């Protein structure tokens, strides 16, 4: 039986209490250590899908795709052609499952890789999200994925507050360990994947073309990563309206097009788009651990208490109380004490100010 929790976990101050924290996965832990990330190298998987010809049909049945919004694009609005051609869709979330997504959701080799990466017995697939990208001559943002905690997630806690919780290292007891795989469908121009397996302060690694039918399985919540520029590069980054859509054309050409108000702004065969499938699964050392942890949920009141105890120890004037949980300025105030790391040698992002 694999034993993912190694003896001799580290001891640190947690909200004023001495607690022993387990060490996961042996040397090069995938688990974060306070504000110092210490990810380990993801597992590369190749020729995952027996019939890659199936893939375009699954993407087509779930079209159209819309430009990225949310965290990276809080200001997107209107019909101005300002969104890069980074299209996305949720395929599996909560009780929704897109037709054909099972090919990815329950892939036996991916489940086995997740068990291997974490030396864990229980892998519970949770979500699938897909991206389609083209003609973006800058990188995507270098980032770690948004964390979730038992009792606290995007449905009840602002995302930036969840990130501050992660970077504080104060809420590890409730942190939901998740494996992420990113798998790629096509060989395209550019579109490599830059990642920081030795932590944000060490040089990054790259996964480059040919990438079709390969995937990297690892800890994208603890490991910084970044999409590299995606071709075609001739016209630079093409901007499209936030209300445009990407879908296959019905003209017999086989092309997929970005359309807005009935007009095609860009068209290319599916194989020219950087199509990726992001899969996430919860990880538990054992079924007993999964059952035991399920009831241990973090309340808002406890969240405030833990932050405040630590802030008091730091002689900080800042306090977190229930009336400020939704306050958009709170996470940036917390970031003064619990800053996110900045990864070394990150490429310029399409969302950086010029
Ligand atoms: Fe990510």
Descriptive report:
The chain is an alpha+beta fold and 354 residues long. It has one domain (29-335): Jelly Rolls. 18% of the residues lie in helices and 28% in strands. It has seven helices and 18 strands. The chain has helices at residues 53-61, 102-105, 108-118, 159-168, 287-294, 300-313, 330-335, and strands at 5-14, 17-24, 43-46, 66-67, 83-84, 86-93, 96-97, 122-133, 178-184, 193-195, 205-207, 214-218, 225-227, 239-240, 245-248, 255-260, 263-269, 274-284. Strands 3, 4, 6, 7, 8, 9, 12 and 18 form an eight-stranded antiparallel sheet that branches. The protein is globular. The chain starts with a strand and ends in a 19-residue tail after the last helix. Mean pLDDT is 88; it is low at 1-33. Fe (ii) ion binds next to loops.
Present the secondary structure layout.
Blueprint: E1 5-14, E2 17-24, E3 43-46, H1 53-61, E4 66-67, E5 83-84, E6 86-93, E7 96-97, H2 102-105, H3 108-118, E8 122-133, H4 159-168, E9 178-184, E10 193-195, E11 205-207, E12 214-218, E13 225-227, E14 239-240, E15 245-248, E16 255-260, E17 263-269, E18 274-284, H5 287-294, H6 300-313, H7 330-335
Antiparallel strand pairs: 1-2, 3-12, 4-6, 5-14, 6-7, 6-8, 8-18, 9-12, 9-18, 10-11, 10-13, 15-16, 16-17
The structure holds fe (ii) ion.
Indicate the structural class: alpha+beta
> CATH superfamily assignment?
q2cbj1_9rhob like domain
The CATH architecture name reads Sandwich
State the share of residues found in helices, binned by percent.
10-25%
| Secondary structure tally, helices | 7
- Amino- and carboxy-terminal Cα gap: 53 Å
Overall 3D geometry? Answer: globular
The CATH class, by name, is Mainly Beta
**Mean pLDDT, all residues:** 88
Low-pLDDT parts are 1-33
* Count of individual domains: 1
The largest pleated sheet is described as:
8 strands, antiparallel
